[in-house]
Every structure is written in C-alpha cells, then in structure tokens.
Amino acid sequence: xxxxxxxxxTIAFAAPPSIAGHANVVGKKEGDGPxxxxxxxxNQDDSFGEKSxxxxxxxxxxxxxxxxxxxxxxxxxxxxxxxxxDLLNQCIGSGFAMRGQDAPFLGLYGACSTMAESLCxxxxxxxxGFGEWAAALTSSHFCSAERQYRTPLEYGGxxxxxxxxxxxxxxxxILARDGNGPYVTHATIGKIVDKGxxxxxxxxxxxxxxxxxxxxxxxxxxxxxxxxxxxxxxxDLGKLGSEILFDLFHKDGMDLNNLTDCGTLIYDLEGQxxxxxGSGCGCSAVVLTGHLLNGMRAGRWKNIxxxxxxxxxxxxxxxxxxxIPCICHAAAISCTK
Amino acid sequence: xxxxxxxxxTIAFAAPPSIAGHANVVGKKEGDGPxxxxxxxxNQDDSFGEKSxxxxxxxxxxxxxxxxxxxxxxxxxxxxxxxxxDLLNQCIGSGFAMRGQDAPFLGLYGACSTMAESLCxxxxxxxxGFGEWAAALTSSHFCSAERQYRTPLEYGGxxxxxxxxxxxxxxxxILARDGNGPYVTHATIGKIVDKGxxxxxxxxxxxxxxxxxxxxxxxxxxxxxxxxxxxxxxxDLGKLGSEILFDLFHKDGMDLNNLTDCGTLIYDLEGQxxxxxGSGCGCSAVVLTGHLLNGMRAGRWKNIxxxxxxxxxxxxxxxxxxxIPCICHAAAISCTK
Lengths: 337, 337
Known about the structure:
The structure is a homodimer. Chain A has a six-stranded mixed beta sheet with strand order 1-9-14-13-10-11, with helices on both faces. Chain A has two domains: 10-176, 3-Layer(aba) Sandwich (Peroxisomal Thiolase, Chain A, domain 1); 183-334, Stage V sporulation protein AD (Peroxisomal Thiolase, Chain A, domain 1). Chain A has ten helices and 14 strands. By secondary structure, the first copy, chain A, is an alpha/beta fold. The first copy, chain A, is globular. The first copy, chain A, starts with 9 loop residues before the first strand and ends with a strand. In chain A, helix 6 packs across helix 7. Chain A has helices at 28-31, 53-71, 92-97, 114-127, 142-149, 203-222, 238-251, 262-265, 281-297, 315-319; strands at residues 10-12, 18-26, 41-42, 81-85, 105-107, 133-140, 165-166, 169-176, 183-188, 231-235, 259-261, 278-279, 303-311, 326-334. Chains A, B: This is Stage V sporulation protein AD. Chains A, B: GO terms for molecular function: acyltransferase activity.
C-alpha cells in the first residue's frame, strides 16, 4: 500500500509511531531563558566536563539519548535505529557520540532541520515495519559553531542585527511502534529552496521561503487547514525569518496566527542579547523535546506541525560567493492517532 | 508486519525495490584505470567546467543524477525522494547539487559508506510504501577532499604507504517500486565500531572491523552463507583493509574467497601510484553503478553483497587526538526477487 500520493511530499503514516520518551540537555544561557523549566539538564559549564567544544557536543548527545531512553524505560540495545546529525564538519558531534552505543546508526545532515529530518525518518522506518524502536537525536554548541562557521570566540567579532545565536543543547526523541502518544502522524519532506540570499548572518531570511513551500505542500497534500493545528512551529527562523514567513502566507490570503518559532521562544529576545533569536540543530531539538512535547502531554496543545528549517551552506560556499540552499521538513504530531 | 527480526540489523524487503537506472561520472585518473569501460562519462578536466573543486563536485552529482534518470527513462519530478551526501564540510557537494531539482531531498552523512546508506534508505522508503521512485546519490573529488582533510594540492605533501586516493567521481542509482531488477533484497544497518586507530592515513585498518561486524551480522540475521553471494564487495577498504577483513573472517574459520573491494578495483595499484587504492564516497558509488551493476545486467554475477564502509572522522577530531569511529552498511543486490 502506498501511503503517499503521487507527486505529493507528505506521508500519512498508517500506524503513527508513538513518542515514548523525550529529553534534552542545555547550557547556561539556555537555562537562563524563558523555557528553563522545560529542560531536563541545565549545565552551568558549557564544556560538559570535556576538553574541547566538539567533545562537549558529543557529551550532550550522549546525555540526551540516555535521558530519553530512561524516560521511555528502555536501554539503547532495544533501538532498531538511531538517526542523528549535527552542524560540525563531518558530523563528528554525532559520530563520536555513537561510539559504544549498541544500536544501528544512520547519519543525517540537514543543518538546523536535523531534528525534523531525523524524526521523519525514524517514524518512516517504524511505520514501514522495519523495527519497533528508534531514536531521533541532534545537537549544536555555540562555541563549536562560532569557531567553525564564523570566528573563534577569542576574536570577539561583532554580531549583525540579523544574526541568530547558536543554541548549546541536544534533544532526543525515542519513538515506539506501539504506545500511547503523542503520535507522529505525517511527515512532509522538503525540496531545496534558494532565493539568492548570500548573507550567512541572515539565515532567517534565507530559510523562510523553504518553510513556506513545505508548509504549503503539507496543507495541499493533506487537505488540512492551518487552524487544525494548535501551533505551527518553525525551527529556527528567528524573529526576522518568522515575520517573512507570516508575510508570505499573508500574501496568499492566509494569516497564520498560530505560527511560532523555536528560535524566538528559547531566549528572551530583549534581555539576552541574541539579536534575532536562537538557531542551530539543538534549538528546535530542545524546544520540541521540552516546551512543546511537555505542553502536549499536559493537554495544552493537541496538534502541532513541527517544521525544521535548515540552511545548507558552509563557510567555503560563502567564501565562494554562493547563495544559500535551504530546506524544511515538517512532522505533524498529535495526541490522537 | 515487521520485516526485521528483534535485535537484528537486517531488513528483508517484502517487495524488493528494482534498480531502474544507474550512472556515473569520473575524472581523468579514474578514466585511465582498469574500469574505464564501465563509466558513463570520463572528464579529462577535473574542474567539470567550474571555478572551484567544490562546485565541480556538485556538477558531477548533477550529471550523474541526470544520466541515471535518463537510463530509467524518467524525469527528476517523478522522484519521491533523493537521498544524497558527500564528504565536504556541511555536505555542500549534495546541498548545492540539489538546487533547482524538483524533488524532496534528504541529506545523509555516512562518509564513504554514503552510497550504501543512501541505497538502504531509498529502498526502505519504497518498500515501506512511501513512494514509487527514489534516487541514491553521492560523490567525492580528489582535489576538494585533499584540501579539506589533508593539505591543499599546491603543498605537495608526501603520501604514506597506507594512504588511499580519493576518487573523483559521482554515482547515482534510481530505484523503482516496480521493475525488472536487479533488486535490493536486504539492508543491514551498521553500528559504530572504533578499535582505537588514530592514523587518518590508514582508513582501511580503521574501517575493516566495522565491515567485519556488519557482514557477520548480515549472515547471522539472514541465515545466509558467504558462498550464496557471487561477490562480497566492500567500499573502500583498500589493499591493507581488505587483507585485515579477510584475516578477521579467517580467524572465525571462514575464508571469504569471493571478497573484493571497490578501492582495489578502480585503479591499477601498481601503475597508478595510488598506494592502497581508491577511497571517498565516489569510489564505491562509481564502481557499483558501473562495473558491478553492468556485470549483473550482463549475467556475470547474480547476487552481490555491497558493503559501504565509512570513517566518521574530521581533521578536527584528528587534531584533538581522537581515534576513528567507523561504520559499514550493507545492501544485498540480486537479479531475482
């Protein structure tokens, strides 16, 4: 049976996988923000006891995976698949976190869309009948991202008004083929969208058109209306990107009043000097595995559309004058099947 | 229905997807090697008409995708998914190749295992009922890899005896839910194996134990014997890594006399100054989409086990003194379902 219409981008899962556990780990700045109460572990020392920022990022992934498994009352060896990725060159945050994990591993690269991509892929593997348990995992670290994408922290570079602040954090979801929800009911896989933005400090503007295309495809494919979701959450367009996305739908005669963004939720935009908000794979991962899923479990929201956005640039592509290819993958999460 | 046993690593596809098209593109050195007759396009100029090596790599991916679609008599818009990845930082080879491609894109990072990983994932998506057509695509480029992982070419660094030569090439497979084969019948997803090798110029030794674990898991999960395959092909252990893999099985009382390696097949190891052989995502991709699949179509082989091996290191992890986490994913390809 084909559960995706010809030419469509959305899979409607026949047996929606259940979110059996979710957990996150963040650094000090995230712990000082408005979502502090939704984090499982807030570390005051962003090194997480490691000697390098890259190793700290791997340590966060291991902590998030372990905590999520704990909540699902499972051990790593039950996992049929771990889908993970991060922003570091050659995804070493994930590759090194996987050492010693007794589970099949599939590495992804979707930049800041990785939480959504891994959730969509893990859901597909379980719905497809290829296993009982899967993990979706990602991370980012302010200090490793700054020195890799921009300049080492010691340089003290000035940030532009459109810049976003890379979240130090890792989030993990454990999916089960059977369970009591919340359920991943749909996955909409994005296409690359590149509208010619070349400013690597303005990711929100670059990624907003990709979010627009994927969300529009989701509505077209499913016949759903925006009002059927309590929240449509992008991750992470930031303040400017969110405004652009709102405007793009407004031009179509559609006001998305339930639109919000992980990058604007995670920090106090006025008080924490983060300019346009949070970013990085870890941003949408920790907001989803904390604030959003906790809220669903508490009955605050019944249906959300989680839209991970990624900017697939590198410092090399920027230096070579290239514009930024962007992508957005969306997962519909519901308290009922 | 679950088509993977509990605790196993191997999916036995209920409706094995068919390889509807396969094509490859290589540079001059690969075109001078023993497999020249199996390449669709040999470019004498490794720049592929582009201004940078990174852009050349994207150009190769676009050419390979287009040629494979042409052989499958399809256009890109029929594709339900493109799975692609490469070795470049933030996988820009793939991300930029996907600009303007009208198809959902899922980015992977599996280092040199990417051809196997993308083939396994694309097969799972079709067998799972999530679409009709999918592409598996990857590339590597000697010049972009050298300057990223080691030193710029102009530096003229001396190569160690255990070094492998990164293949300049891209390979693509178009999978169809229905077709006349060859078919992808099984996918064995690997776990990370790290035996403590720290020498980034000795990938074969680092990756051989990962290949050993995945191939062993494949036999355990399926109950198959090595002799049921005409070829067991790793990609890319090179000469030294292949010998280690043979020895590991020999210690178990099993002589894999049908073992071969894409890295030793692609070059003339004596005459082309490549030391231990070829490597890079493109190596196993172009050998699979040329020599191996052409041979299957010509009736030379009926069953092969294609085992992509990846070393998930980065220059940063090497500089920080870390050993190399490795992985191997295997796809069983057969002329009959």
